[in-house]
Amino acid sequence: QLQLVESGGGLVQPGGSLTLSCRASSGFGLNAVTIGWFRQVPGKEREGVSCIGSDDGKIQYADSVQDRFTISRDYAKTTVTLQMNNLEPEDTAIYYCAADNTGWGCIRGIRQAFFEKWGQGTQVTVSS
Q1: 72, 21, 69, 29: which is closest to 48 by C-alpha?
Q2: Distance between CA atoms of 89 and 127, rounded to whole angstroms?
């Protein structure tokens, strides 16, 4: 079964940048898989941050990150990257990547219910 691993989290100052990466432990990688990035903080529901369709035909962002984050694929590495710029304290959360095997998870928004396979998360902390 597909297993996902996130990396790249850490502690940064407001205005700084981080790059998160999502990779698959399985042999086929993520090039043909719809991938979403989500985040969660204590006491709040998990929210969608961004997603990218299996054929790159659809990309979605949460309004709060639209002009600051960029999701992309590294086809050579068969990974998905979330470039996060101009980070704010409100971005502090555990960030998860997830895979959607239905093909519907990144159509007309980040549709969390369609993402069924999740990584363990990586902590992002934005603080002065």
Answers
A1: 69
A2: 6
Cβ atoms of 48 and 42 within 8 Å: the answer is no
**How far is 48 from 61, CA to CA, in rounded Å?**
8
> Of 74, 91, 128, whose CA–CA distance to 9 is shortest?
91
The whole-number average pLDDT for the span 61-72 is 97
Instruction: Give the β-pairing of 122-126 and 59-61.
Output: unpaired
Closest C-alpha to 54, from 70, 39, 33, 83: 33
HEC string for the chain: CCCEEEECCEEECCCCCEEEEEEECCCCCCCCCEEEEEEECCCCCCEEEEEECCCCCCEEECHHHCCCEEEEEECCCCEEEEEECCCCHHHCEEEEEEEECCCCCCCCCCCHHHCCEECCCEEEEECC
pLDDT tens digits along 11-25: 999 999 999 999 998
